[in-house]
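OP here, attaching both records as promised.
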Amino acid sequence: MAEPKPIGRVSSYFSHIGVAAIELTDKLKVGDKIRIKGATTDLTQTVDSMQIEHKLVKEAKKKDSVGIKVNDKVRPNDLVYKE
C-alpha cells in the first residue's frame, strides 16, 4: 500500500486545553478520522470539532489553520494524515 499523503502539519499544541493547531494542505471535515504521527507521536482519532479563528466550523480547506481537540499530547511538525 502506498504511503498516505499528509493533509497537514501541527504548528503548535496548547496543553492546557488539549488543542492542536494544524496548518492544512488538504481539506478536512468534522467526522473524518485522522492520524497524527511524529518522532514520538502516533495518535488516531475522529475529528469531533474544529475551529478557525475561535469559530466552530464543520469543514476546512487547504491552507486553513484549524484548532482540533486532541486526545493526547502532539508536537509541532507532527504530520497529520486522513485515515
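Record two, same layout:
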Amino acid sequence: MSHYLPLARKLVCATLVALVALMGTTPANAQEFPARPLRLIVPQPPGGGFDLVGRIVASKLSELLGQQVIVENKTGAGTLVGTEAAAKAPADGYTLVVGGFSNIAANVGLYKQLPYDPVTDFVSVGMVVSYGYALVGRKDLPFRTLRELISYARQNPGKLSYASGGVGTGQHIAGAALAQATGTSLLHVPYRGAQAAYQDLLSGRVDLFFDNAGTAKQYVDTSQVKAYAVSTLERFPGLPALPTVNETGVGKVQVEAWFGIFTRAGTPAQALARLRTEVNKLSQSPDVLGRFEKGGGRMLHMSTQEAEAFVRAEVAKWSTMIREAGISAD
C-alpha cells in the first residue's frame, strides 16, 4: 500500500497541474485578439486625405484581421476632437486612429495646450502613405503662374484668401508655409473638411486651396480649378506639367501629408504585434498599393523603430518651425 501512495500522489498532482494549465490557457485562446470589431477614428469629415486613408486601410484590415474595422469620422476643432478621443480610449488595441502630419506633428506647435501628446500617448501601428500638396485656385483667378499670384499678394496684403480643411490641418500649414516663404500675407479661411472647402472654392467664395495633390487632381483635370504648384521636392506624377514651388523661384517650400495608423500607448503586446503584422501586410498588398499610387501616394515602408524615429523628428521639426513663424491655432 505504502509502495503505491507516492505514485498516486504524483499522478494526482500531475493531473491538477495539467488542469490548472488548461484553465489558464483556455480563456486566453477564447479572447485571442481581435475578438470583436475595431473602430478606426478619422479625425476629419469624409472627402479628404484622412478619410481616404482610413477607408482603404479599414477595408483591407477587416479582411486580414477577420473582424470588421468600422470607420468613425469624429470631427471638430481641426483634427483635435477625434485625435483626443483616440488618446483617451482604452489601451486595448480596439481603437485605432489615422495619424498624420497635421494631428501628430503640426498640432504640437499650433496649440499651447494640446489635449494629447503625440509621442507619449500613441504608438505607431504602421506608417502607410505620403502625399504632396497642390496649390489650386478658383478658375476665374486672373493669374497664370505662381509668380504672378505671389507678386499680386505682395502688393495686396490680405486680399487673397486660402482655404483649409480646418485649423491646424496640413492644408493650413502648407498655405502658411507658402506665405512665410514668400513674405506675403494671405487670409486663412478654415472649413470643416476638404469637401466644404471645395464647395466654396468652386463657387468662387475663396481664392486658393493647398490640398492633397491626389484629391486635387480630379478638379484640375476637369478644369474646375486652376493649378499653380506642388509642395514637394519633385513634381507630382499625376500632374507632370505642374512645377514645384521651389522650381518657380518664389520661395522654398517642402510640405508633405503623411499618414499612418496609431493606437494607444500601453496596448497589450500581443494585440499590438498582430496589428503591426497586418498593417505591414496591407501596405504591401497589390490592391492597396494600386489604390494609393493611383491617387499620387508614395508608400512609406518603415520598421517600427524607423516609424518612431520619423514621428519624433517630424514633431520636433514642425513644432519648431510653426512657433518660429508665429503660426497659432489658439
